[in-house]
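Example record

The entry below shows one chain as it appears in the dataset: sequence first, then structure tokens.
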Amino acid sequence: MNKKEIYEYLKEKNIWHEITEHKAVYNMEELSEIDMPYPEADAKNLFIRDDKKKNYYIITVKGDKKVNLKEFRKNNDTRPLTFASESNLMDIMKLIPGAVTPLGLLNDDELKVQLYLDRYFINDAHIVGVHPNDNTATVWLKPEDLISIIKEHGNLVKVIDI
């Protein structure tokens, strides 16, 4: 799914969302220069894999939060972790660097990627802002709806404290 198809999908499913169109951004620093309606709910998404290239994960946290992969590994009983490659990103989710998003899992036909969503979005923010498979916009969703979309597609979702 591309950006337009994501918008149509959300509309068809009758899922509440708001869209903020903006210039292309490739990292959280660039995003911070844009006036966003819900800055507390901007998500940072890390696409990582294990050392055997068998398990892939998207870790979604608040934009200013640091993720310690060694600690994540220990807490979630994974093999050693590293960032997945650009080719993995394109092959699995049809995304480019800077456009990593949980909504990319809708392009993960083989269900290779697991989503780890920080509990912060449910307990504190009550909204989450993610790219619609394109880094020229942010879609604001209720975290429960995002979880439901991804689970319905068939990918595993874990809500944890990160």
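Notes for this example: Strands lie at 17-21, 43-50, 56-62, 81-83, 113-118, 128-130, 137-141, 157-160. DSSP finds six helices and eight strands in the chain.
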